[in-house]
Amino acid sequence: xxxxxxxxxxxxxxxxxxxxxxxxxxxxxxxxxxxxxx
Length: 38
Fold this sequence. Notes:
about 0% strand; globular
């Protein structure tokens, strides 16, 4: 799951914002920054 999440998010690029926030639920900025940098 961890390997598929970052892969899909990176491919979407901008979509990762919507997916990241939906996946996290509360702290989207922290998760977004980490995933985007990774």
